[in-house]
Request: fold
Amino acid sequence: MSFTSPAVPGAQLARQIALLPLVGLIFFSVSGGAYSLEALISTSGPGMGILLLVVMPLVYGLPIAAITTELATAMPAEGGTYVWARRALGDFAAFQAGVLRWLNSWVDMAIYPVLFASYLSALFVPAEAGHTVIASFGPFVLDVHWIVGVVCVIIPMAGLNIRGAKSVGESSLLFAVIALAPLAILAGFGIVKLITDQTNPLSPFMVDGSSATAAFGAGLALVMWSYCGFDRVGLIAGEIKNPTRVIPKAMFIAMIVVIASYVLPLVGSMAVGGWESWEAGSFGDIGERLGGTWLAVLVTVGGMFAAIGLYSSLLMSNSRSIFVLATDRWAPPVFTKISPRFGTPVVAIVVSSVMYALFSLGSFIDLVVIDVFLINLLLLVNLIALVALRIKEPTMPRPAKIPGGWLGIAAMGVPLTVVICYVTWYTVRDYGSISYWLIGGTLVLSVLVYFPARTYQQHHSSSADAVALSDR
Reply:
């Protein structure tokens, strides 16, 4: 079976995403703006924080984008890591990649409705977490905070995704403008003030009393988190118009926008001082000091739309994981159901949305370690698939091939692997022994699920083949 042909007849999605909408989707798959990055400065120091934001794209973001671009343009089909691993490494690795991607999204996606409600609570106090509790069940808390996230983010974005990739992509451009405009104003005011006051935004370079190694390590995980997500393009490659030309251009534009959206607001914010106490959400206070209450409100609204944009674009890509597994008969065929009106995987979108709503009910802070581990594991699978395909299929057409042969791959892959290993070790160390149980349990469960899934796939593939023969 080729990488472009689904096992379930008719389970093919239309190519609707053009260049600019894809830029918007990549932007929100990776970033959403500098919101929540304020803590980088108070943790690492002004100079070290900005240095990390400038250097990390070279050793982490760019390699991810380059690897994804080569693979997605060579195999422009839905599924991303699943498709690449299947062709390079076989069914077992592909199944693990697909299942772990979707399961990991349950934890990851629960963040954004909560983030939206947290920003809204600055304007509407009952939306604050725990302020208006309706009922609680152990770690699960049903409150206005959760209801706001479901009603304002999960339900409407499920509807938007059902309308199609074109709608999601075009809306991402609007969300990006609303999210970035307040930060652009803040950056402009701040940079003018820096110049007027002759203030060095990179001084001091580090937090007082901190070594360079400690300052670097303290901010590395946060910055790494801020540059992952470029590989999401592979999950929706089958819906991109002219992917061999559009994907490389969109990646380049999105990379520039992401870096600028991080660096400029943080540099401008240095004009007000007080960076030692910055934390996630401090941009509102910074905006008020630079421009007044109106700018603080705009920044808060921008943060809300950043959360919406992140959720919408990631719902689109994550829902394709279970959809592609089902098209290859690893999961029940109901997940391949496509809306006759909009041509979208409606069941995959709805079921994913329900899972995200349920996970946003509780506090799963300990599960963050799984999120970090699995995201980085999947990035390494992409790298391994790229290397394996260079060896197994050297003549495969690669419209956006990483230049430089094996030296070029090493230049991309070695720094990426080092950063991934360090950040994973750093995160696991912080969470202690529970991280070993969580990660080990997740991987063991994923491996065990493979065997009944394989039996299910073989049975249904045989049945489908028999039906096809009888129809001849």
Q: What stands out?
A: Residues 1-5, 465-472 have pLDDT under 50 and may be disordered. The beta strands are 133-137, 140-143. The first strand starts at residue 133 and ends at 137.
